[in-house]
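2024-03-11 09:14:02 INFO receiving multi-entity request
2024-03-11 09:14:02 INFO entity count = two
2024-03-11 09:14:03 INFO echoing inputs for audit
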Amino acid sequence: MHTYLLGIVLTLSALTATNALWPIPRSLESGNTSLKLSSGFKIAINIPRAPADLSDAAARTINHIKTDNLERLVVGRGAADSASIQHAKELPSLTLTLTPGSSARSISDEAIKTIGTRSEEYVLHVPSDGSPATITANSTLGLLRGLTTFEQLWYSSNNQIYTMEAPISITDAPAYPYRGLMLDTSRNFFAVSDIKRTLDAMSLAKMSQFHWHATDSQSFPLVIPGFTEVASKGAYSSSMSYSTKDIQDIVSYAGARGIDVVVEIDTPGHTAAITESHPEHVACSHVFPWSPVAGEPPAGQLRFASPTTTNFTAELLSAAAKLFPSKFFSTGGDEVNTNCYAGDAETQSILNSTGETLEQALSNFMQTTHGALEKLGKTPVVWEEMVLEHNVTLSNETVVMVWISSEHAAAVAQKNLRIVHGPSDFFYLDCGAGEWLGDNPLGNSWCDPFKTWQKSYTFDPLANISQEQAHLVLGGQQLLWTEQSDPSNLDPIVWPRAASSAEVFWTGSTLSDGSARNVNEALSRLHDFRFRLVQRGVRAIALQPLWCALRPGQCNGD
Amino acid sequence: MHTYLLGIVLTLSALTATNALWPIPRSLESGNTSLKLSSGFKIAINIPRAPADLSDAAARTINHIKTDNLERLVVGRGAADSASIQHAKELPSLTLTLTPGSSARSISDEAIKTIGTRSEEYVLHVPSDGSPATITANSTLGLLRGLTTFEQLWYSSNNQIYTMEAPISITDAPAYPYRGLMLDTSRNFFAVSDIKRTLDAMSLAKMSQFHWHATDSQSFPLVIPGFTEVASKGAYSSSMSYSTKDIQDIVSYAGARGIDVVVEIDTPGHTAAITESHPEHVACSHVFPWSPVAGEPPAGQLRFASPTTTNFTAELLSAAAKLFPSKFFSTGGDEVNTNCYAGDAETQSILNSTGETLEQALSNFMQTTHGALEKLGKTPVVWEEMVLEHNVTLSNETVVMVWISSEHAAAVAQKNLRIVHGPSDFFYLDCGAGEWLGDNPLGNSWCDPFKTWQKSYTFDPLANISQEQAHLVLGGQQLLWTEQSDPSNLDPIVWPRAASSAEVFWTGSTLSDGSARNVNEALSRLHDFRFRLVQRGVRAIALQPLWCALRPGQCNGD
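2024-03-11 09:21:47 INFO inference complete, emitting structure
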């Protein structure tokens, strides 16, 4: 019976041999010739005046390949490859080339171009005969994506770095431009090093957007020039805030890795932390019990009916927007609790004097704050409530993040607004960890169950979206709200799960052989991606027992 | 309104001021005098020929106190304490004393004494007037428990180490002797350093038992003298196995920290890994599809009807038992799948020739293997099925681990057997992380939902157990099965949750003021315990936003 098993394993192993690429390229052909990396392997950048961040990316690629030291996920961990490797041809170099007429702008500049105008496509060839490999692209950003693929082609065994699948030909481009991850740095704080480690992992999955939910009611860690008092009083501590230098560090680190940083300063709800510096702008601040007026403690929302508060907010957001080169800026807009204002004497007095409804005041507030951002060339991003629950006038350019339910995307599309998918029923990384409020011993997570990578992987970006509306879908992202997370569990709660949506939005619905993307095909590649992350110091979780990771197909339910 | 809030916070803060002790002592009185640690603070061991592991424990205590650097979990993190600390008396020393007539055996020796005969009680006094603190106990193990409490009395602020609650008088002893944690090192491997870090955290929570589920069907990492081929072929790799030296290292590290190591070699099920070295002993080995014959892949169970296999197993377990000084040895016994034997020609042939039923053969197997262990002075430990589902004759001394449901404990008690609670509905740390089998994209964890610390904390060890049966309850433990865990997420999945049952079984059902143990009282102490773990390099998760951790009572549901 044991012999019988080995037969099964070998067969399945051969079927799933598409290297360890994640996301899987749109078009991929590979052979079965062994090829090893020359000890003097070099990357030649065949571009006059190549930008520094491209040279850095090439140097990182060489470093990754030499230090990943990832053994093949098969029984014996690649020991059986030794004989074949010993006589394999050596790959001497990789040449990076831009297509004629392409400009050699920096990766950072390409990564923050207006969404839809970025060029991420690339063509990668790895010949089997020992002649140089090549990556060709229309932009340095495309070359970076190609380098990221190239890094994932290699295994290690016996001090050799090799592939068993040369020659390799890849033509690749993303299905959707927005492939993101959201991190909440307000409920609990994350150091710059935690964010950088996350950006490294995101870049390995070819993700393009870091949605930085920077501030919320619990703390305001973003130091904004001209408004430094908001963080100095509203952050957990001075060591738990992001200085201008920290922000520049994060933005430039992200940009060099092909990632656009979309900051969010959530308004007018989720702003209790502004009370510490500007109590005059916050209604129902710290009201206790909190539940009638807030989604979670502490309560507190901006007095958006007040012209003074509206102007303060517009100036605060404008000052923050200048710190970030991205074309996007998120003003939040989720979970505005109207009860908060019903009991706020100042808001009621203003509404009485102007004769406006609360909804009219909210619309004015949004128009003023968004208008200020648009003057700075920013495209506003909002959560779905601003479109689906409130009667707010927004620019047609506004991007809407769907979070409450995947079923709400269709309603946003019907309003002809652009969509980023981040529905809690598929993409919330925090779900399933139990109740975090203090006195509910039998309570569970509000968005149970845990969203497995498999569940996220089944997401259909075009469900209930017509062909005519399809262009409105920019992509999507997984999200980490941090009521129960901080640096202690950042890596395990995010990785490798967040790579699931990275492939959904890069690869699209079909594999290069025409078959539908599916969890069975994906699992062994995701194991590889996970083990590579671990080799790089990202504490991604084990998806299965190692026994299963080494034996594709043996640990399916049956 | 903000002023109103501060009033609330201060009031609640005062109510919950019982230091940051976890588990909370059975009897505790504290004052409100500030006291700081002298820079020359020493621990004097007032015991002739004090054992080395007690001196080591005292040295560790001083090191912990000086390096924990834990700030008070209040708004301002203890900055407001500065004035009071400045003029506080200094604590020069702590004296450790054994009660007259007590023997000065090592902590390690005391920790592995027969359960029920260990002495863990201690009395701790910290005067407020600058005279020395004292811990008195009947054993070095009791002194260790007292040192662990002493470590938790101190906060840091402005380079001062202090308490605001002197004088402190504690008289303490555990409600139950078995306070454990189970770790599965077969499905995924954990390095000795991971286990040691876990033992350190366990010791801080005064836990007494490390239940080491060492082997299973996926891998057999335990190198057993005389049977080294089982691990050399059945471990994931030689670097993923525990040598005799590793085992001694773990046992002695645990012992010095007051922890008894109960090893488990699960039999006769969960033994597919033995196939690699001894295929002749394993039925339905690696049968695929696995689900008709096994709880999870890979399939494989010992041929317990075979006298050869029974003798092999008895010798293997005996050789393993000699590696561990504990009085306990677990032979497992869970999830024996009878279908496996229905299709096993060798088993059927043996049963035909002997005329025995499968159940009779199982009973013989258990008697032989347990008999061999009992000859070595070991008390066998089994999972509940051996008592509740099989017609197996077991010694009255056998300890039974309840896992399938908390409701099954009563049935074990009715059989007059001793109980360790580890029910999946309260104590399984792996629940709620989604389906790990490969092709079930919408599947969830089999034991959903996630078991929160609050849920575990509500566990009643005596539910449905009569007063006459109460003596059968040895205690209980939380358990980590590692289908989806390895060193990447060990700390966050275990801590601080596993401390929940540590307090349930140390403190019992009532607090020292006579009130019932409850999650509201416990939360702020558990925050402190968690932050202290983080300071010590254990990546325990955040239970709530820091905002909540600093403001007891403000983040309850309402």
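2024-03-11 09:21:48 INFO post-check: Chain B touches chain A through 83 residues (CB under 8 Å).
2024-03-11 09:21:48 INFO post-check: Confidence is low (pLDDT under 50) at residues 1-17 of chain B.
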